[in-house]
Amino acid sequence: MKIRTPRARRVAPLCLRPCVLAILSCVSAHAVQAQPLAAPVLLAQNARMPSLQDTVVTATRTEQPLADLVADVSIVDRETIEASGATGLADVLARLPGIEISRNGGVGNASNVFLRGAESRFTAVYIDGVRIDSQSTGGAQWEQIPLSQIDRIEVLRGPAAAVYGSDAIGGVIQLFTRRGEGPARPYVGVGVGSQGTRKIEAGVSGAAGQEGAFDYSLGIAREISDGFDAKVSGSHNPDRDNYRSTSGNARLGFRIDARHRLDATLLASRLNSGYDNVSYKAARPVDDRNLSRLRTAGLTWAAQWSDAYSMRVSVTDSASRYETTPSPYLTETKLRGYLWQNDFRWGAHRFSAALERREDALQNAPIDSSRSQDALALGYGYNAGRHTLQLNVRHDSDSEFGGKDTGSASYGYAFAPHWRATASVGTAFRVPTLYHRFSEYGVATLQPESSRNAELGLRYAQDRSSFSVVAYRNRVSNLISFVGAGTCASAFGCYANTARAQYEGVTFAGSYQLSGVQLHGSLDLQNPRDLGSGKQLARRAKRHATVGADTRIADWTLGAEVQASGQRFDTVANTQVLGGYALVNLYASTRIARDYTLLARVDNLADKDYQLARTYATPGRTLYVGVKWAPQ
Description:
- There is one protein chain.
- By secondary structure, the protein is mainly beta.
- Helices cover 6% and strands 56% of the residues.
- It is built from 5 helices and 34 strands.
- It has helices at 17-33, 78-83, 89-93, 161-164, 434-438; strands at residues 55-56, 64-65, 72-76, 99-103, 111-115, 123-127, 130-132, 152-157, 171-176, 185-193, 197-208, 214-228, 241-257, 260-274, 289-304, 309-325, 329-346, 349-364, 367-384, 387-398, 402-416, 419-430, 449-462, 465-483, 494-514, 517-526, 529-530, 543-553, 556-565, 568-569, 577-578, 581-593, 596-603, 622-629.
- The strands form 5 sheets. The protein has a 22-stranded antiparallel β-barrel.
- The longest helix is centred in the N-terminal third of the chain and has 17 residues, at 17-33.
- The termini are far apart.
């Protein structure tokens, strides 16, 4: 049996002065040109700035205008996703404030996402409201999620267990597929890129029936790449580790009447990717393969019983399967959720109450185990004048560990036009995975990991310009780590609640329009460390940043971005260093005919040699060109 321990990642140091200067120039420009506005607003970080009317559901699990939020949220729209070219979902997330990634080779291999430096398993992940997770590795298996099916991304930074329960220690990431509206809108896209990458996608969305009572969205995609040798050193098979991905989704909605609506979602993905077994000692080369499957399904009834009271009932189901060949390994996680959400509005006040049940099951021979959690969550929000307040409490009753209480409080004060100061505190937890408890390395008496977080923020927003700075400190106790032999069945080592960690830092983010050029960037200064040893946590940099610019010239949209990261360590002992790097990416798009759009993208323009995990290669300079047909 393989040891499937939590995955990590890293990035390295480089000259970050351009990032700092870009942010400082953005701040100084705001100070000179800011004009009074009737109400303070909060905008998310995105290449295309969201409008003040955009709504977000991730912060409180109910729709709220972006301007009403105290939480630290980013939005990524379809336009930005398409500009990302043929990269994976983790690559898109890595361009947002507060996020780092690591990956064992190419896009189809094991990937980790660190949100504010927290372990990958400390981020709760949802697709169309359906929770996904792995009860073997812990956290979402990011390589399984097909970027081609995702229409919108919302990222909430900071603990949210008082709303979502277990897992949301670092934050929450919600992924949404396309929703149909208006006349039928078909599309077909094809693309080719470096390393033999080929991609084709097709779909249709729209609405039908009286006043568009029935809406639909269907999409399929196929992506193939010859890849590259995933390993740069150590024992491995010196072949090209290719991948093949097939995915599809369906989203159907029916408005029963003016107050009632049904929604159904389904997403499925299959991934076959090559990897190099770290223990490869075969007499002849072996084509090691990852075989992954992901399926999510959800059914929701939303009712607006009155102008003040609304209700939502949903049933969700997901399955994540991971298998390797020829070395035999198989693990499958099945999750089911039930949610009854109630929201009541009274003037400037919002009240919410939710009952939720979640069921987790793991099959990983010889493990065949399950558990459940029942929860009651209450929330209160207030937004009037200069003041914004959000309070949440939640009680989770776990079938294995008993009760767990969490809470959060956030306050925002608009002290001047366009400016808001924020403060929040919150607690969170994650119960051990079933693999942590019942594998040969597991200990049945492991306790939940728990955290306490506090943060302060300052935000400015006006028109297409914004600036924010958020300082946070998140301390995690009972952190599960892999230690020496103990009470488990394995003589190699056991899991134990022996560690404590602290994720603290400051995130700067800004966007500014200057003479037709939209500038945007972020800088993270952080210190993720083990409180016991004082050492830097593995595969997390103390400094990382992104700076970009977008503009239109004639019929072309042109953009450039720089991703930079400081030194990281590959091990918790801080003995193996991953050097810093900076990547320059370019992209361009234009309409080449009435219904055809051309996209071209170059990643890692300077062909920088860098590593996200020791001994694993990265793709180097890559080019992607795609054409999309979408009748207007």
